[in-house]
Amino acid sequence: MFEVATKVHDERRQGEAFAPTIADEKEYKRRFYIESYGCSMNFSDSEIVASILSKEGFGATPHLQEADLILVNTCSIREKAEQTVRKRLTEFRKLKHKKPSLLVGVLGCMAERLKSKFLEEEKLVDLVVGPDAYRSLPGLILDADDGQKGINVLLSREETYADISPVRINSNGITAFVSIMRGCNNMCSFCVVPFTRGRERSRDPESIINECRDLFNAGYKEVTLLGQNVDSYYWTGTLPSKEGKIDAQFWPPLTPPTGENNTQPLLMQDADSNSDTLKSEVSEILSSPVGREYYAQPLLINNSGKNKDTSKSEVSAWLSFPVGGNQGLGTQSGMVAGVAVTFASLLEMVAQISPELRVRFSTSHPKDIIDEVLFTMAKYDNICKYIHLPLQSGSNRILQLMNRSYTREWYIAKVNRIREIMPGCGISADIIAGFCTETEEDHQTTLRMMEYSKYDMSYMFFYSERPGTLAERRYDDDIPEEIKKRRLQEIVDLQNKLSQQSNKEDLGKTFTVLIEGDSKKSKRDWMGRTSNNKVVVFPKNGFNFKKGEYVMVKVNDCTQATLLGE
Ligand code: SF4
Fold it and tell me: Which CATH number covers residue 551?
């Protein structure tokens, strides 16, 4: 649950209402108001809902009183999020008394979790629609107009809303989220997402590239590719072709990585008993078109044991990398079939839209992030050097209870690898204090892991049990609340210290900053971000800069959360 919260689970945006950013001249039959809670996937979904409704003649309003339809896009990640929604619904009751034709709908994870119970428990609710059923909204609204309460919480194995062009909500016109996949197959024991958002599906890369390119052409300068676990993005299918090869507009010709850090693309250090198998798989890669064409340098295999950040899954991920230097497995009129697109290759496609378009992504899973992604990041200046790598706990025993599928040692190897390939890359984490059976020693190990990883920032929570999760079924939530809170406070205090240290190390340095808008505190200052995701505030000082421009800013002071520059 907390991991999703980390997907830019921005507390300042909770309950944010749709506010169209451009004056809309269209005549609408009716008005809808939508309020969103939870992670950025939910905010992104609200943009899809807005698009579906606008095709049905609904115009958006940021004012409740004007609405004919009120929608709340909900989050189930924490109990507090659900309580907030319930409280909000009671406030809508008064409006419904005044305007009986008003429809109220609940969307998202809470709708999926509670299903028809919502209609029973919250009598004023007319519509309950789960995250995979937004296309059915127009039909359900028609039913509700006739007095029939509507519910659709069917989860899908295919739905990605790939063909729906989202209407941007509350956008600054510079940065946008682009959903690349839906659902999650991981079953972390504390998490409700696999039950509310269903199985993992990857979206068609052509539609992703088109959406990112359209955003860039509309003046956007940064896209964040969103998924519950972006590293497991994997799509196979057919892409447009030109002259028998994949159209370079979707898949530019691959080039070997450049830069001194990339001279040895995959450092395979293996001391395990299965090293013979690994070596034979690696030879297979070497003799494949990918090994020969994409990575000019041979893979380095040694047994020093310095870095055991290698696994069969990494090898097989490499083997699944698109074959034949831009060739699919077969062609049909204007298309190339049998193409496999991994997350690294998708990143490369998006990065090549324009060097002026920054690319971010969220969230990575420590068990799945591989060298191929790190080298792709290193290769492109416009792929931001920032990775959100949820830790959750530093204790191997707790990680196992959480069903996280990695160990502390594995996680350390990933952090080492990121620092080795991209020195200066920002790293952040999610951390849960007080998971079931957590001892003081487990907690201390988490603190030590934080010290080791030197996170620039973290999203930190204490464990709260969610109904329906594996943890609820398997374990007692046995850590008293005061202990959870005390441990969380220690985690927060340490993170504050680490963030401060990290910011102090930037004093005197100059960064390329993308201006996102006015600083919240003063219109006389700009606010922007560095590639490694640090917020920079600097005075406008009469310079003629504009939102969306890249500027060089020298850092001369800092707070714990912000770099102050000139
Ligand atoms: S990876 Fe784990 S925590 Fe993240 S969404 Fe999937 S199940 Fe939840």
Answer: 2.40.50
In degrees, rounded to 5, the angle at the alpha carbon of residue 303 between the alpha carbons of residues 297 and 309 is 75
Query: Measured in angstroms, how far is the CA atom of residue 186 from the centroid of ligand 1?
Result: 6
For ligand 1, is residue 186 a contact (CB within 6 Å)? yes
Mean pLDDT within 365-386: 95
Does the pLDDT at position 289 exceed 60?
Answer: no
Report the alpha-carbon distance of residue 419 to residue 252 in Å, rounded.
28
Structural contact between residues 139 and 24, judged by C-beta atoms closer than 8 angstroms? no
Q: Does 399 contact ligand 1 (Cβ within 6 A)?
A: no
Q: Which residue's entry shows tokens 């008993």?
A: 273
Show the domain range for 142: 2-152
| Spatial separation of the C-alpha atoms in residues 62 and 46, rounded to whole Å | 13
- The DSSP annotation for 336-359 comes to EEEEEEEHHHHHHHHHTT-TTSEE
d(CA 48, ligand 1 centre) in Å = 22
CA 365 – ligand 1 centroid, Å: 9
4 lines ligand 1 (CB under 6 A): yes
Residue 179 lies in a domain: no
Is the model more confident about 96 or about 397? Answer: 397
Does residue 5 register a pLDDT over 60? no
